[in-house]
Amino acid sequence: MSALFPIINHLIQQNPDSRSELAAFADKTLALNIAGLKLTGRITEEGFLSASNGFADTEITFRNSAVQKNPARRRAGGRRHQP
């Protein structure tokens, strides 16, 4: 699933402060578990993620309920419904 890393890195690139904070963890390996999908990446010196098969130093798991879309927002065209 290394095809997702360019998308993740694009999001990281949009926030230079977060990228700088991630760079402090260079060479650490991170595993993300999202709705049954596991991505393992190494943090680079620039603060981006690169694909890795190594043992994860840190693992973050998002439960299915955390990634489900909010049906009310979908009906409102992506905007929050205001009464």
Overview of the structural elements:
This protein has 83 residues and is an alpha+beta fold. It has one domain. 31% of the residues lie in helices and 25% in strands. It contains four helices and four strands; from the N terminus they run ααββββαα. Strands 3-2-1-4 form a four-stranded mixed β-sheet. A hairpin with a 2-residue loop joins β1 and β2. The longest helix is centred in the first third of the chain and has 9 residues, at 5-13. It is globular and about 40 Å long.
Structure, briefly:
With 83 residues, this protein is an alpha+beta fold. The protein is built from four helices and four strands, in the order H-H-E-E-E-E-H-H.
